[in-house]
Design a protein that fits this description.
This protein is mostly beta strands. It contains 1 helix and 17 strands. The chain has 2 domains: 82 residues; 100 residues, Immunoglobulin-like (Sandwich), CATH 2.60.40. Strands 11-17-16-13-14 form a 5-stranded mixed sheet, with no helix packed on it. The protein has a 4-stranded antiparallel sheet with strand order 4-2-7-8, with no helix packed on it. The chain starts with a strand and ends with a helix. β7 and β8 form a beta hairpin. The longest helix is centred in the last third of the chain and has 17 residues.
């Protein structure tokens, strides 16, 4: 989530202010290095809850520090409530496989954990290089989303197992980001087509023996020629 911090400046004080959480509840991490820029009044600290964060309401505080002519100064906010809640949805991935340069569908089952208003965007993150798909939308009644993935002939082959979905639910005008995973996409090298086999060479047919000297040559009738050709053809076929 994005924790918005607002500074109330004294008149004439315009210096930049560094802000941070001095303590994070268990399972919660907060962004460091956040600064309210010179002359401005607001900045945002990104907070993230991992899967082991305890579901309850915690007290948090934000510190701010800056420099004045007399030296550095530090102030803090009043205690504020930070509520850790269960995710609105959980996801179950059905692994997919595709050949380089081809297309495939990756199905993600959606299980609602709590009602949420309107539509939420779902972005599939972690696809290999030159593999693309579209952002999807879900609502509280959506049972599944199907990502149609297009790959390139140069998309790296292998089992890509770090896919996850970023689901953004907007509640009370504020985006609540869920990073839910993980899935896998196997990219295969296409099997090359089989080369055409060359035609077998025709079987050699022995030339007929010449008749003995002095014996007249027998002239075959048309029917006898056809029978002889058929016999030679059958003999050649049997040797293949």
């Amino acid at each position: 989530m994005a924790l918005k911090v607002k500074a109330i400046r004294k008149e004439g004080f315009k210096a930049a202010i560094a802000i941070s959480l001095p303590w994070n509840p268990p399972g919660i991490s907060s962004q460091g290095g956040v600064v309210i820029p010179e002359g401005q009044d607001e900045a945002v600290i990104a907070l993230n809850a991992d899967g082991g964060a305890e579901i309850k309401t915690w007290k948090i505080v934000v510190n701010g520090s800056s420099g004045v002519a007399s030296g550095p100064i530090m102030v803090s906010t009043q205690l504020a409530n930070l509520s850790v809640a269960a995710p609105f949805v959980t996801l179950a991935y059905q692994n997919a496989a595709v050949d380089q340069g081809k297309e495939a569908d990756l199905v993600v089952k959606v299980q609602k954990q709590a009602d949420f208003p309107g539509d939420a965007s779902v972005t599939l993150i972690g696809l290999p290089n030159k593999a693309v798909t579209d952002v999807k939308t879900i609502n509280k009644d959506t049972p599944e989303v199907i990502f149609h993935i297009k790959t390139d002939p140069t998309t790296p082959a292998g089992n890509h197992q770090n896919l996850f979905c970023q689901v953004i639910v907007t509640q009370n005008g504020e985006p609540i980001v869920h990073n839910l995973g993980s899935g896998a996409l196997r990219v295969d090298v296409p099997i090359p087509p089989k080369a055409n086999m060359p035609e077998p060479a025709p079987a050699a047919v022995a030339a007929p023996m010449p008749p003995p000297a002095g014996q007249p040559v027998k002239v075959l009738t048309r029917l006898e020629k056809l029978r002889q050709e058929q016999a030679e053809k059958a003999k050649a076929e049997s040797k293949k």
